[in-house]
Amino acid sequence: MTTATTDPSSSSGARLDRALASLTGLAVGDALGSQFFVPANGPLLRGGDLPPGTWGWTDDTEMACSVVAVLAARGGVDQDELAAAFARHHDFDRGYGPAVNRMLRLVREGGDWRELSAALFEGQGSWGNGAAMRVAPLGAWFADDPERAVREATLSAVTTHRHPEGVAGAQAVAAAAALASRSGGAHRPEELIDGVLALLPARSMVGLGLERVRTLLDYEDSATVAAVVGCGRRSTAQDTVPFALWSAARAGNDFRKAFWATARAGGDVDTTCAVVGGVVAAAGPAGAPPAEWTGRTEPLPAWVPESAGLEPVGPESVGPEPTGTEPAGPESVGPESLGLESVGLGSAGPREAVGPAAG
Ligand SMILES: [Mg+2]
User: Fold this and answer.
1) Which residue of 26, 85, 235, 258 pairs with 357 in a disulfide if CB–CB is 3.0 to 4.6 A?
2) pTM of the predicted protein model
3) CA 324 to ligand 1 center in whole angstroms
4) Which structural domain range is residue 202 located in?
């Protein structure tokens, strides 16, 4: 077919609206979830009651805002701009993992993200859950083309998380958000998991975890499922993403149900809830967090584009800061150059307890 497409779901305005809906859910999940690291809030969690005050978001939201800003400015993942945006907006007090903290400081000082990301964990790259935690809005953005969502998720992941598991976690979350956006959350749980598995380009521990949770969709108790597949206690993609997508798949577009089931399992609660919130809210208004929850969440930074009706963030506000050095070369680091299409499990299995998790 050579007919030009005018699919309204592919317009930049529609894409931005979807991404912002997902970003709002991600931020609420992150901010409310992180409240339960405060020991005094433990009883509230058991009772399903909200903590007092305003809930501040963490690194999950800060990085997701950069993803959305770059998409709004460029229409896709420009890796140099994304790495520069991560570095420029990096706030040390937002709970980043130590490896990413150091890496983003070095990028800010003029370092090459390609070299720094590849060098993490003695050259293995990070398999932390940090690429997955920020990527749901990208999936919503490309919901009109889920395969592209997976490709762009790959490009976004490797700016910080180059290990194939870190990449697979991002691919899975982006796929889930794209599919949730397409269905408006009106999918059967197994449909969402099957759809994600069909979009994953390579075998991975993340994929094996998804196959496992596919058999646990009738379980009511999230803690039991978390005991089987993990819930982020190791901060790896593979012990975070299968559980989070299990929870998102079961909840459909019910944000409350999704949040409490996810948070009660414990683990890396801000990140599991950010992933779940970003995927569920990608469904649009039906999957949005309760208005009170959004109102209690710290507002997003002013540099995030606010709505499709407004001018998107200009290139100058997401571009690299002057560093005194030439920016890295223009070629993308993608799945081909990483060999991700053919990655096996042999390099990923044995290091579970001491693996390259950078958050
Ligand atoms: Mg966090």
Assistant:
1) 235
2) 0.87
3) 31
4) 10-300
